[in-house]
Amino acid sequence: MSIQNLIRPTIKALKPYSSARDEFQGNSDDMVFLDANENPFENGVNRYPDPLQRTVKSLLSELKEIPQSKMLLGNGSDEVLDLIFRAFCEPYQDNIITLPPTYGMYSVLANINAIGIKSVPLDENFEPKVDAILQQVDGHSKLLFLCSPNNPTGNSFGTQAMKTLVENFNGIVVIDEAYIDFSNAESWVSQLEKYPNLIVTQTLSKAYGMAGIRLGICYASEEIISVLNRIKPPYNVNELTQQKAISQLEQNERTQQQVSDILKERDVLVDQLNSITYVSKIYPSDANFVLAKVDDATKRYNQLIEHGIVIRNRTTQPGCENCLRFTVGTPEENKILIDTLKSI
Ligand SMILES: *Cc1c(COP(=O)(O)O)cnc(C)c1O
């Protein structure tokens, strides 16, 4: 498969904006920078940020064992996903394939970009229906989204199903690994060499505890990364975000400890949910949230709101009738949740 043939002609022909920091990258503190019309008086953020976020990438590169050249950072995964749409999907012409129930942004971004959506619902175990998916593909199917672990169901997809899809889909397969740090499943980042049509996205918003700074990560071949770099806004990740990401990534043991605490607490939560009389099913989770079926999701959701607890009502999602999604909180928060669920 040729990646070049998948790129929109407009994007292939694009002459990217060249920022001051693209044309000269100084790494010496004693240089005099009079090139970017900045205010020269130092306040910590008076200079434009590194457009390629090299320090953040070097830390991620060590952590994830992948070269910086195969990485692109965005203002949240949402920006990364939007860049992928704009690189590969021609408005009013191309389509994407999504597997509901799943993360809502894929179809929202498709709608914003005037891209068709082919939905192939997951099966009763929330696994992809591989044959049905491949049957839906047409000459304009550019992106296939596999969210694993999947939001809102919480499960990771079977490796063989994913492999078959990556190997047989004639477009770009985007594997959204927002929750991979909670999972025992191996990241697909290690498979990038093998599959040139693979894009893996991750985020600092979940396990890494930095939803507020908006930092999403895209891993792909150098060929794909260079296309995305051409179309991204030049300074898309701001200086404060880069600084905070650097300081947090340098304390990675703390993040790993938090992840293991959250996973222990998830087990406690599942145990306790089992004792709630109107909870009829708890779906296996490979993430930091639990999907559970109750007698009347909307009623229970509203009751929790009245008690000051906000969860996610997923009852309108295909295959999720009367399902609620609970994010794992601190032990104290989870206790409040369970006590409240018992009392209502
Ligand atoms: C939370 C989440 C993201 C993260 O989005 P950010 O924009 O990076 O905060 C991405 N994908 C899925 C499936 C998610 O649930």
UniProtKB/TrEMBL annotation:
> PROSITE patterns in the record, alphabetically?
AA_TRANSFER_CLASS_2
Residues that span the membrane, as ranges = none
Q: Which UniProt keywords apply?
A: Amino-acid biosynthesis, Aminotransferase, Histidine biosynthesis, Pyridoxal phosphate, Transferase
- Annotated pathway, please? Amino-acid biosynthesis; L-histidine biosynthesis; L-histidine from 5-phospho-alpha-D-ribose 1-diphosphate: step 7/9; Lipid metabolism
List the coiled-coil residues: none
Identify the cofactor(s). Answer: pyridoxal 5'-phosphate
Q: What sequence ranges are listed for the domain Aminotransferase class I/classII large?
A: 45-341
Q: Which InterPro entries match?
A: Aminotrans_II_pyridoxalP_BS, Aminotransferase_I/II_large, HisP_aminotrans, PyrdxlP-dep_Trfase, PyrdxlP-dep_Trfase_major, PyrdxlP-dep_Trfase_small
Sites where N6-(pyridoxal phosphate)lysine occurs are at K206
Please state the Enzyme Commission number of this protein: 2.6.1.9
Catalytic reaction(s) noted: L-histidinol phosphate + 2-oxoglutarate = 3-(imidazol-4-yl)-2-oxopropyl phosphate + L-glutamate
GO BP, sorted A to Z: L-histidine biosynthetic process
- EC class, as a word, reads transferase
GO molecular function per UniProt: histidinol-phosphate transaminase activity; pyridoxal phosphate binding
Pfam families xref list:
Aminotran_1_2 (PF00155)
**Which proteins does it associate with, and in what oligomeric form?**
Homodimer.
The protein's matches in NCBIfam families, at most eight in alphabetical order, are given as:
hisC
Q: Fetch the PANTHER family from UniProt.
A: HISTIDINOL-PHOSPHATE AMINOTRANSFERASE, HISTIDINOL-PHOSPHATE AMINOTRANSFERASE-RELATED
> Which family, according to the similarity comment?
Belongs to the class-II pyridoxal-phosphate-dependent aminotransferase family. Histidinol-phosphate aminotransferase subfamily.
Protein name per UniProt: Histidinol-phosphate aminotransferase
Organism of derivation: Algibacter mikhailovii
Per UniProt, what is the name of the gene that codes for the protein in this document?
A: hisC
